[in-house]
Amino acid sequence: MQTTALALAVLGAALLLGGLLSGLDRRLTARLQSRQGPPFTQPFFDVIKLLAKERMVTNPWQAFSPLATLSAAACALLLFAWQGDLLVILFVHMAGGVFLVLGAMASPSPYSQIAGQRELWQMLCCETLLFVMAGALYLTTGSFRVSGAAALGEPLLYRLPLLFAAFLLALTVKMRKSPFDLAGCHHAHQELVRGVFTEYVGPHLGLLEIAHWLEVVLYLAICSLFWATGPWGMILLPLTAFLAVIVLDNVSARLTWRWMLGWGWGAAFVLSAVNLFWLKG
Amino acid sequence: MAGTILPFGPQHPVLPEPLHLNLQIEDEIVVSATPAFGYVHRGLEKLADIRDFRQMIQVVERVCGICSMIHALTYCQGLEELMGIEPTPRARFLRVIWSELHRLHSHLLWLGLFADAMGFESLFMQLWKVRERIMDINEATAGNRVILSVNVIGGVRRDLDSGQTAWILSELAEVEKGFSAMSRTILHDYTVQKRTRGKGALSRSQAMELGCVGPMLRASGVSQDMRLLGYAAYGELEFAPVVEQDGDCYARCRVRFAELGQSIGLIRQAIAKLPAGDTSVPVKGRPPAGEVVARAEQPRGECLYYIKANGGKFLDRLRIRTPTFANIPALTVMLPGIELADVPVVLLSIDPCISCTER
Amino acid sequence: MVFMIPVVLKNLFGRCATRPYPQSPRQLFAGSRGQLINDAGKCILCGTCARSCPSQCLTVSRKEGLWQYEPFACVFCGVCVEACPAGSLSQLGQWRPAVRERERVVLKVEVKSEKSGVRSEA
Predict the structure, then answer these.
(1) Does residue B161 lie within any of the structural domains?
(2) How far apart are alpha carbons A165 and A54 in whole angstroms?
(3) Interval A246-271: pLDDT, tens
């Protein structure tokens, strides 16, 4: 009973944090572009409005997939809060991503189908980097558990600086920001309209939005592992990474998935590999 | 994915206007592209039957908002030639000033939309912020932001006093500072280069064969600019067409960016040489009769008006050949073979304006 | 990428270019072509405005003494204002406010005898 209450509290806090981060993102992006921007609470109003709208689906998968994605993101977050195994967290989170692609592929629309394929490429890039990171965590702390990073005694960043750079790439992809807003960006202004989200409307889109908040919170939580020696490091490092991604979004054009797969992922992989060898040697 | 057909438009967030492209795609590479038109055809040429030749000035301004001033200018110059009217020197210089202001705001608008097409939103916002000063100049001097409505047969409807010209010059200095701050991003940024270099390249002979005009043609190495004809006061001002050799999206971007500075230079020259006198000559006598072809350089290229009049209030025939229409055939050559992600960039590089394509 | 960083940072700490419209509306410049109004006291119902109007949004009926104007058809070109021989037409320095219903301006003009203006919307 107590565990359930605690889990709900964690999820509630994550929702609040995710929504506020989204609000901060929109406000800061607007200011960087010389605009005024919406209030910080705007994302909550947007999601409430979406949830209150009429349900419309072209097939049952579109109704089921957002629920699966949201549950997977919530589970992964709870596993993290209970300081679980990073590998398990990543697998659970990845399952949610698969359902997002399934939902997009379920509709005959070419926009969401092509975006579904791009999303798979993105997952290939992101998840491999995260698994390498989990491996590095094991090599450094001798455990796949999240708690290992805190027990290390010194910031993980000192041991894994290049891996952190590679992680920033994964964070940019996950936050759907330029140069990697390929499979669906925040403002439906690209060649695939809104990518994987194109065919969703109303409450289903609202659920996906909430799932996106939770995923961003999860990624920032993983980011905090790089400086897990105290609360300040655990807050400041993810916040800096978050702000850096927003600035990057505003100083670069969107690149293509072929570039991401060739140069982006290639560079990140080389960085990770060099870091691992340096760690062993 | 083999053989997907992607409907690009008529309603698509990347396109400001309703153009329909059927893109046949294999593995995100465009195999063929078929453009379709007719979503905003308004029959403006046919309106010449029921609007008299003076009212048609306001009608042709609405062929295209972004080139409105130059549409009216071309039309009025055609009628002036038919009626044997010579506009006053001051009117000719004022026409150059407003024409170049139009070119400036059109090119800034295009650069912004081009940045947006490659997902560079902050550059888009920044360029439109700079553009807002031009819109202010338009409103303060002509009365409207976009559709200036300053041309009449025999001259212009508004005048600039010395205070206004001084203010225009100081505002233009700010505009120049604004877009110069962007120059390194537009011309040398890695991501921008990655998205524009080598995309949709047209050789010199291809561009000529496909009938491209304006910046499209100049980017492929052809030095063609209708302003060299010396209409209005262009004959008394010094400038040389901006020409690039590569013919790709990046070259088109360079041409249009360099033309921003060129336009500012032309406005400065025109203001410095602005002669005193009346802004228009009174038009008396019979309505026009005969045939005439008028040409002018719009931000998007050569615009051609054919006017046939019979001495009555209404024109016999008005035919407008817009530069955007001339640039569309190039799309069918440029689009096949490129990545889907590059379609918006290549599409925007011709500066499409569907309302003036279809009139 | 690096070239854009100073620009966005300057934006972040500078004033924003947008304003919270409609709470703080933008002031038009002097000489802007705003709302078209007719001074019924000066109007002589000659119909020059209606004949010159490119969008044909004006109708003048001498018999009924009515000057009618369709603001939604008007393109605010100002041709009628310049054509008016009596100087009764003018354009205000502000735009027409947004409305929910289609409006039509009907002005009762009495030429020669006592003049009065009535504006009704239908």
Answers:
(1) yes
(2) 43
(3) 999 889 888 888 888 888 888 888 98
Q: Which domains does chain C have, with CATH numbers?
A: 29-121 (3.30.70.3270)
How many other CB atoms are found less than 10 A from the CB of residue B228? 14
The pLDDT tens digits for C43-73 are 888 888 888 899 888 888 888 888 888 888 8
8 Å CB contact between C104 and C121 = yes
Q: What is the dihedral of CA A183, A184, A185, A189, to 10 degrees?
A: 100
Tally of domains within chain B: 1
Interface touch B1/A191, C-beta < 8 Å: no
pTM attached to this predicted model: 0.90
Q: What is the mean pLDDT of the segment spanning A72-90?
A: 91
Cβ distance B58 to C31 less than 8 Å, yes or no, reads no
CATH number, position B148: 1.10.645.10
For residue C13, the distance in angstroms to the closest alpha carbon of chain A comes to: 8
Return the number of other C-beta atoms located less than 10 Å from residue B287's C-beta: 18
**ipTM attached to this prediction:** 0.87
Contact B301, B215 (CB under 8 A): yes
Would the CB atoms of C11 and A32 count as touching at under 8 Å?
Answer: yes
Tell me what the mean pLDDT of segment A167-195 comes to.
83
Q: B16 in a domain, yes or no? A: no
Q: In this structure, is residue B107 part of a structural domain?
A: yes
Q: Tell me which chain A residues have a C-beta less than 8 angstroms from the C-beta of B16.
A: none
Who has greater pLDDT, A191 or B142?
Answer: B142
* pLDDT band of A187, cuts 50, 70, 90: confident
B45 Cβ contact partners less than 8 Å away, ≥ 6 residues apart: B318, B319, B320, B359
- The whole domain housing B47 covers 42-358
If you measure CA to CA, which chain B residue comes closest to C17? Answer: B129
Report the pLDDT averaged over residues B202-213.
90
Contacts of B26 (CB under 8 A, 6+ apart): B1, B2, B3, B4
Judge whether C16 is closer than 8 Å to chain B, CB to CB.
no
Residue C85 has pLDDT above 90, yes or no: no
Contact A173, A129 (CB under 8 A): no
B313 close to C (CB below 8 A): no
B258 in any annotated domain: yes
